[in-house]
Write a structure and sequence with these properties.
This protein is α/β, with parallel strands linked by helices. About 35% of the residues lie in helices and about 25% in strands. It folds into two domains: about 40 residues; about 300 residues, Metallo-beta-lactamase, Chain A. The strands form two sheets. An eight-stranded mixed beta sheet has the order 6-5-4-3-2-1-14-15. It has a seven-stranded mixed beta sheet with strand order 7-8-9-10-11-12-13. Strand 10, helix 5 and strand 11 form a beta-alpha-beta unit. The longest helix is centred in the N-terminal third of the chain and has 38 residues. The termini are far apart.
């Protein structure tokens, strides 16, 4: 009995020691993690080539596992965003990609879920490198209104940042946004909007009516290429501009699953929600349609993003994809936030991994 009591006392003392040491232990672990986070630059570790980082694979429908729509395209160490949905800046931080490296944003259209992460991205870029010029928003006509509205919304906040941290850290000229609008010449449905340092970016029209204008982008760099559809139903112009691309990144909505949601909403008496769910079906492509377009365009791989509806159970990926993998014979993936698809220069490789914590 005495031995048992002594053992209990020893165990209690050890537990007590661990309890009181947990603070210092936590601080030590945190210090190591902070040191790594402050020094980390995932982009610097990438091979030369074209890379797509998924900063957000979700949609307007709330999804705890997915940020709003955002794709970062990395070419030779240069970073451009295609759209910036809510949570985009957080994905950059978690992946160890310095936001100060972002050169600009290409907008596909002006739905709120593709814009509502812009302010956080611009702030982190601005103070991350003491930027002296605002973040450029390239997009179709209307982008001027987006930039002007955001600039007005955050003008007071930007002033606070400079006053607090000083002009060397937050230069007054570097906050906010600058618009760069393009317009398609008569009779054309595509246009080169950037051709610099070996990187060519081509914008092309897609079909997301009544959201108009709506566009997608093709990136070509050192013999590798990828296409970001933006939001679009099946569109011949997308196929034409995706010919031979290594990677097609396309939004995807599974009508069968969305109709189940609409039916549940109707049963619950949520008529407005049911109507919205029915409405969204006709201006997004299904996984099967994306697979067909990828096959027609001869792309090497397909990444499905802007996932509708959310899939809280992994087993739902099977009905979500439907017959897509039977239609498209190459790699076809459902995007996850912080996925990185790499297309190294001078190679035909297509590598997929996940960045960050």
């Amino acid at each position: 009995m005495k031995r048992l009591l002594a053992g209990i006392i020893v165990i209690g003392l050890l537990l007590g020691a661990v309890w009181y040491a947990r603070g210092p232990i936590a601080l030590a672990i945190t210090d190591r993690a902070l040191d790594k986070a402050m020094r980390d630059d995932a982009v610097a570790k990438l091979p030369d080539g074209l890379h797509a980082f998924v900063c957000g694979s979700g949609s307007p429908l709330p999804d705890k596992d997915r940020n709003g729509p955002c794709t970062a395209v990395i070419a030779g160490g240069r970073i451009f965003l295609v759209d910036a949905g809510e949570g985009a800046a957080e994905s950059f931080a978690r992946a160890g990609i310095p936001a100060g490296r972002i050169e600009g944003v290409f907008l596909t259209h002006f739905h709120s879920d593709h814009l509502d992460g812009l302010s956080a991205v611009a702030l982190q870029r601005w103070v991350g490198k003491a930027a002296t010029t605002p973040l450029t928003l390239t997009g179709p006509p209307g982008v001027e209104r987006i930039a002007a509205g955001l600039n007005e919304l955050y003008a007071i906040d930007n002033g606070y940042r400079t006053a607090h941290h000083g002009a060397p850290v937050a230069p007054p000229s570097g906050g906010g946004f600058a618009a760069r609008a393009f317009a398609f010449p008569d009779g054309q449905d595509s246009l080169v909007v950037l051709n610099d340092g070996g990187l060519k970016v081509t914008v092309f029209k897609v079909d997301h009516g009544p959201a108009d204008p709506a566009v997608g982008y093709r990136f070509d760099y050192k013999g590798r290429s990828l296409v970001v559809s933006g939001d679009s139903s099946a569109a011949p112009n997308l196929v034409a501009n995706s010919k031979g691309a290594d990677l097609l990144i396309h939004d995807a909505l599974q009508p069968a699953l969305v109709r189940r949601m609409a039916a549940a909403a109707n049963e619950a008496g949520l008529k407005n929600r049911a109507k919205i769910l029915e409405d969204i079906i006709n201006y997004h492509a299904s996984p099967e349609e994306v697979a067909r377009q990828g096959k027609e365009a001869g792309v090497k791989a397909v990444l499905l993003t802007h996932i509708v509806p959310p899939m809280p159970l992994r087993g739902l990926e099977v009905p979500f994809l439907g017959e897509a993998r039977k239609t498209f014979g190459g790699p076809l993936w459902i995007a996850r936030d912080r996925d990185l698809i790499s297309l190294p220069a001078g190679s035909t490789k297509i590598d997929r991994r996940r960045l960050g914590r």
